[in-house]
Amino acid sequence: MSQELIDLVVDMREEEAVKLAEKLLDEGVEPLSLLDDCRTALGIIGDRFAAGECFVPELILAGEMLRQIGAMVKPRLAAGGGEEQKKLGRIVFGTVEGDIHDIAKDIVVFMLDINGFDVMDLGVDVPAARFVEAVKEFKPQVVGLSGFLTLAYDPMKNTVQALVDAGLRDSVKVMIGGGQMDDQVAAYAKADAYGKDAMAAVNLSKGWVGAK
Amino acid sequence: MPKPENFESLTPDQKRQARLDAWINHEGIEFTDPGAENSYRERARLFADVFQLKKPARVPVAISTGFAPFHYAGYSCRDAMYDADKLGLAMKKFHADFMPDAAASSGLYVPGQVLELLDYKLYHWPGHGVPENTSYQCAEAEFMKAEEYGAYLADPSDYFIRTYLPRVMGALEPWKELPPFTNLLELPFIPWGMLPFGLPHIQETFKKLMKAGELSLQWAGRVAEIDRGVITGLGLPKYQGGFSKAPFDVIGDTMRGTRAMMLDTFRKKKEIVAACDRIVPFMARMPYGAYQWGGAPTAFFPLHKGADGFMSPKVFQELYWPSLKAVLLELIRDGMIPFLFVEGSYNQRLDLITDPDIPAGSTIWYFDKTDMKEVKKHLQGWACFSGNFPSSLLKTGTVAQVKEHCRQLLDDLAGDGGYYMVNGAVLDEMNPDNLHAYVETVKTHR
């Protein structure tokens, strides 16, 4: 473990963090330990985000640092690439039909992934039938519906209804989030909860799969 | 009430008063129905009073509309952008049925044909990238590259003509081949400078622009007619005059896109500050494109990238606020009233925006999701404030919930004046019973 690397990532010192990672790799540090350090750093950043001490740009830059360091680590991993991290649960996620907003969705998917979930990202403008298909195929514990506009209220409601019609509603918890969503809309759409940001989505999901 | 001849020598307060008086007295708009004329004046007076932090005769109520009028009339969102007859019918019906105190401009709905002709890429619109019954939505991309701040700063107009526009409008792509217009000097060089304009594919771009111009002109004529009908037929003033943007949003929304812009706040701080400063005069000039003497003397700013969560308060202070403030002060000096629509929330910004350099009664702040009790605490006596009636309630709540929420907001916020009611997010969908309850509850509240 490199405390220095963790600190640089947490402090958003991108250039120095990437340089240090490169140096550590050249010195023969176990490549996977760098990814663990990044995960530790992202955990701290996530906590700070939840506490209102850092903001979406920090999450995006952290993701960017992880991407760069990951790209350096990957070619140095032995074939087979080390042991897979044990996943907390599976989540199907997407922006509902008629809505093409992806920025918030991408951040939530990223934070869910970093926090140990296996996420199937269906993209934007996702029809209800596609959510149903994905739930059948991927068997998630949680479905996340993202939407930015007031026009997303009905597609959210229709998506939950489609899960009911397919007999799948009881097998999943449904969370909604995005620009104009709130508890009122969650009740309207018959979702289980509304989450106000990425960390809320992580905490809801952890609660539902019984993880700490 | 024509523009006073000594207008330029008036103080900012006097200029604002003269502009408001011209608006209330509907300079340039003829009424045939005296009843509608009186209603217009009364309503414009209500708004003018709250803009100037006074207690109005009653609290005015507005509806911030997106595509709600079209759903309500049984038309699609696409109709709003492709069929001016339906646009007119829907706007008239919506206003006549709900009778808020202000008219929403039909200028928000622009001709889709023009956007198609230009192959405009920054947005998707109904039937063009998003379903026919969905509002237009931004499809951000890095239309300006990270390494191009320098080129933009050196000459924003040249950068727009030869780099930005060819990327954001497919029809103008050939403009990337044009030489800079600053080369057009001295007799021996002029004809050589004309050569590109002889090339068929460059000529094609101008033909498309001319066609887009014709279509836009026709549409603008219809929009003006529709708005005039709502204003003079129903006695509803338009309270949005001109339009502008925060310089940071010009870069973030229009040129770089959210994700890239957020990374730039770490990697390109100096460049952002320089570019925002460079944009100030352009944005201070922009409202005069739509505002005319006698219109509402407001300049509407939809604020995006500075919202809570999108940056820290420190970065807001460093990168977002200074150039926006410079634009606001410029407009305030000319008697225009900046009308700032805070999309998302500004719970962490209220002490930053209440800047002592901005004179009391010179701005309007319209909030989407900010805590309104805190807004009142910070803004009362400094600026007119409004908003955050949840659009979710107008669609998904009950009539009783809507009435209760209206009363609550009015009791909490309206007592000292300087406040009017409006829904938070632009309204695309609603339950008509709820919207009636919303308007009536505010109008009858004492």
Mean pLDDT of chain A: 92
| Spans of at least 5 consecutive residues with low confidence of chain A | none
Quaternary status: heterodimer
The helix content of chain B, as a percent range, equals 40-55%
Give the biggest beta sheet of chain A: 5 strands, parallel
Question: Which spans of chain B of ≥5 residues are poorly predicted at pLDDT below 50?
Answer: none
Q: What is the C-alpha radius of gyration of chain B, as a whole number of Å?
A: 23 Å
Main sheet specs of chain B: 7 strands, parallel
| Strand content range of chain B | 5-15%
Q: Count of helices of chain B?
A: 19
Shape of chain A: elongated
End-to-end separation of chain B in angstroms reads 33 Å
The arrangement of helices and strands of chain A along the chain is HHHHEHEHEHEHEH
Kindly state the number of beta strands of chain B: 10
Give the amount of beta strand of chain A, in percent: 5-15%
Determine the N-to-C terminus distance of chain A. Answer: 23 Å
Order of helices and strands of chain B: HHEHHHHEEEHHHHEHHHEHEHEHEHHEH
Helix content of chain A: 40-55%
Q: Whole-number radius of gyration of chain A? A: 18 Å
Lateral arrangement of strands in the main beta sheet of chain B:
1-10-9-8-7-6-5
Q: In which order are the strands of the major sheet of chain A placed?
A: 2-1-3-4-5
